[in-house]
Request: fold
Amino acid sequence: VKAAAADVVIDGTNVTANEAGTATNKDKAAIIFLHGLGDVSLFDIRIPTHEAFLLSALAGTQTPDGWSKLLPEALPTYRPNLANVDITYVFPPAQNVGITVNGGEQMPAWFDIFDWPLGVDAKDDPKGLAMSVKRIEKIVAELTDEEGIDPSRVVLGGFSQGGAVALMAAYNRRKKDAVPFAACACMSGYLPLKTYLDVSEGAAKDTPLFWAHGEHDDKILFEQFVYGVEKLESAGVSVTACSYPVGHESSNFKEIDDFAAFLEDVLCADEATADEMSKSAKAEAGGQTAPLLDDDEKNAVLYYLLAGDADNEAVESSTQESMPMETR
Reply:
């Protein structure tokens, strides 16, 4: 016997339980960010922007990778318009996998790695990649069904291995009629399964890519960045390609700043336009607007967010002094 669907309320609209899975709110957004090889997260942290302050406590003990502490705090600090968007940040943990290049050692990973460094001819793990992509698709479905976030407002991103999975999930869509994601971000990652790349027309047109890479990366070689950017651009993807004179870094302040600017364009174009209009109006009226953080101030913010509890007290005074009053 099929029970009658109960009425539920999503954003003030009465819908049936059967309809709830398809009711979405275009004002909401989500950023799914995947950590790199060996990073640990004891559980799937999913938290809305307005509760991001809780991550300070969570990240210190349960997410050594640091992304769950860094991004929700740094992104709106670098680009204040992002604070006006109702963003849910999701940092899923990878399962333990035996890593061939490490002698079969079990560690958190999205798929197996067979050799270091990874050049364009590196061997792939199709099964592991497919399983991870399916998991990301499940998370996206849950965000739609449970939180009303439209897939077109979801940004998929990741670092290193996580970036490779994000690229596969965003552009090698199994369902060619699937709703394109808002954007994709690959930080120090690479394009796997190159021979099987099949970018759907919708994804190429509507899912811009932010790709950042260190020029001296000795784990995932810079040639992967050059090859991947050219390959995806030739498939019609709009790529914002940024390189930095660093190695296989998990983050640097310029990279995070560039990522924040990219997200501002993707997620809050209306807010950015309104902000520019406000600045113009104030200028005409002879008023002043608060400046964005300069490079030294951004570096101080990033260092503060990434520092451990013992270091926070040491840098707190210098960080506070370097930050404009309106950001404290």
